[in-house]
Design goal:
Length: 157
Amino acid sequence: MALEIERKFLVRSHEYRRSTEVEVIKQGYLSKESTRTVRIRVKGDQGFITVKGRSINATRSEFEYIIPVKDAEQMLELCLTPLIVKQRFLVEHKGHTWEVDEFDGENKGLIVAEIELGSEDEAFEIPEWIGEEVTQDPKYFNSQLIHLPYSKWKVKS
């Protein structure tokens, strides 16, 4: 089984922007049940379909496949709204790659950083620009941001 082990954090400064590796991502969800999600993503000139299982701590099953970008763009039209649009900064830090997402659209203003790990107990160093951990807080899940976008939160974290 393919597993994703990921931890998510808020960001407290823009120092990550020193990275020159930036990707624009547009994604939507065909399904966002509590036990699984089916995501469609366009990143650059590639399309992806991803099926994810329920998160247990920082781990969940994940199956991701490349699909033709034209198919992905058409599937995005079938997805729940609003779509997620974000810029992703890839930042190397002490042997790990951090993915920092700056959200746009209805989630504009939200910035989160994620790190993928080989195991839940893998050691890693947290950069100084990283803030509070939100791995376990479902409101920060991309699949939840279509249900309750950041712009509609009463008190922003």
